[in-house]
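re: ur question from yesterday

yeah so i grabbed the chain u mentioned. its 157 aa long if i counted rite. heres the sequnce exactly as i have it in my notes:
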Amino acid sequence: MDSITNVNPDNVKAKDLFTEDQKDLIRLSIENAELDTSGEIRVHIESNCSGDVLDRATYIFDMLGMQKTALRNGVLIYLAVKSRKFAIIGDAGINKVVPPGFWNEIKNIMFDHFSDGKFTEGLSEAITRTGEQLKKYFPYQVDDINELPDDISFGDN
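ran it thru and got these structure tokens back, copy pasting raw so excuse formatting
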């Protein structure tokens, strides 16, 4: 579990963390990362995570139907703003092939950006790096379709 610093948790709601331009940049990062892969990347942001962040991220992963991709190669980046927690999890297909420590490397990149209050940059770089790994193991095929939405999803809590 990692923490987010430099955020005043009393003043930030999940939906208010990013401007519309920043949301567009994150969505564009997802679209670009998915250009060369059949893999799917989602970002989910909510205000609070009262329990274990990996348990919550796993619940959101299932709730968003990310386990339903044909090759089980979905990746969720989860962020709980007020709780200052985040996680990145991959489905069974991608977890079988990424190098050991890959998700920790991505989390460290995110943590460094988040510590400086650079949430858009942290998410965009994490998305780009994830896309690079997905491309290696799940290259784009001519019959690929976008199986999951690219927009950020937001929770109510």
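noticed a couple things. The beta strands are 2-3, 40-46, 74-80, 85-90, 153-154. also The chain has five helices and five strands.
anyway ttyl
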